[in-house]
Amino acid sequence: MKQSPFPLKPFAMLVVFALAAPLASHAGSENRPNIVFLMTDDQRWDTLGCYGRTDVITPNIDKLATQGVIFDNAYYAVAICMPSRATIFTGRYFSDHQSGFTYPYNRTLSVAEFSDSYPARLRASGYRTGFVGKFGIRLENWSNTAREHFDFFVVGGTRWPEDDPGLNHIYRRDRPREERTLKKGDAMIRFLETQPEGQPFCLSISFDAVKNDRDQDMYAPHVEIFKDKQMWVPENWVEGRNERLPKVLDHCRGTYLHVARTSTPELYQKLARRFATQGYTVDTQVGRLMAKLEEMDVLDNTIVIYTSDNGRFHGSQGLYDKAILYDESMKAPLIVFDGRVDKKSRGRREDAMVSSADVAPTILSLAGEKVPESMRGRDLCGILAGSQDMAQWRDAVLMENLFLQEIHSAGVKKHEDIPGLNSEIIANNRSYRSRGVRTERYKYFIYFEHDPVIEELYDLKADPYEQDNLVNNPEHAELLKKLRKRTDELHADAIR
Ligand SMILES: [Ca+2]
């Protein structure tokens, strides 16, 4: 099952020594790797060529995968924008940071909490840090806090360095909306062009593609490529409503938006083409990035990580967007390219169970930094190097959804008593908050605020599209017991 691990390379030894060394010794060190973290918005794992699709066009991302490590069992700890991004920044699970859209899980991350995030930690240790694109988290005193931790910052209309003529030219007012992904790519290149020699960098690019849903946000030359293309339809795409879903999901926007937006073949095809178009536009930026790193002669000391913030149903399961704990929403694309690895040892698929909570500790560890105690995700460096003792690795990952559409909508309408509404929703069985675990083979989750609780159990090997709920099957009673216990254990560990 595991690919042959490659032996510990000199770079891994460097990481080991760096971990043992005091932080101060890093100042001025030129050996620490550069890190580029690329994240898309709402890009389902299987809308990339390297995960098996043939109707999309993603040659640059596919090439990154063939030269790096591609993860086949990566899962989001939470699959909705804000809390997922908070998890990725901090290495913490949702029920720990509690920073999401809806009460009572709508905390603002404090200045102190963000100072433990991967970019803040790297800047404190001497990295030049950049962030471009969708920031997406609620952060105390956010503009000042961001200024403290980023040297180069482009988020909406907020950007610095303010006196950079190149940056101001990229964001000149006359550029059309359809160039939004190109502009982020331009800013990415600008960060690299202004990189001083002798200092490592950490650049995070957060594309708002591929979730844009309007024609004016599509880059016209790329729309042309897909305009007559018939897109692949997954086996569990549902025409019309899905009557198999638990009734509590009638209160989830995924069900009614599916009816409005993805429940006919025509609607599905149109949306799938939009996602493929934006995926291609992102892919071209990945190509620009790799060419630039090569041109700068820094590729052999640079790590490039590619992932997204959550998946997307696109009508699979009769759901529209994300958050609910089926694989289309929870499974993540994850590729780690490490330019320091010997060319002969590159290109490996990895089946270890990994979580989006692992991203931040892994980035810190790759940079030779100590992982703060607050981070509950695990360091993937051993897995990347092929030196991890898999008997000591986790057998399951925690997944959570604590978002409720009803509370979100009430907040938009300035509802006067959100805590009261929350209690009323729970008392009247309209809460679909859920948690569970994914193992390599099975999925278990529970709608824990429903009375009686609703549970689902799937054997992904026999039933990859999660159609046959085994929770009442006596043959799986022991497994059910075990996965209930695993869920409680992983949840307790996340909030300890
Ligand atoms: Ca998202």
From TrEMBL:
Signal sequence range: 1-27
Keyword Nucleotide-binding: no
Keywords for the protein's UniProt record, in alphabetical order: Hydrolase, Signal
Domain Sulfatase N-terminal: 33-368
Pfam family, one: Sulfatase
GO molecular function: arylsulfatase activity
Keyword Signal part of the UniProt annotation: yes
Family the UniProt entry places it in: Belongs to the sulfatase family.
Database matches in PANTHER family: ARYLSULFATASE FAMILY MEMBER, ENDO-4-O-SULFATASE
UniProt name for this protein: Arylsulfatase
Species for this entry: Pontiella desulfatans
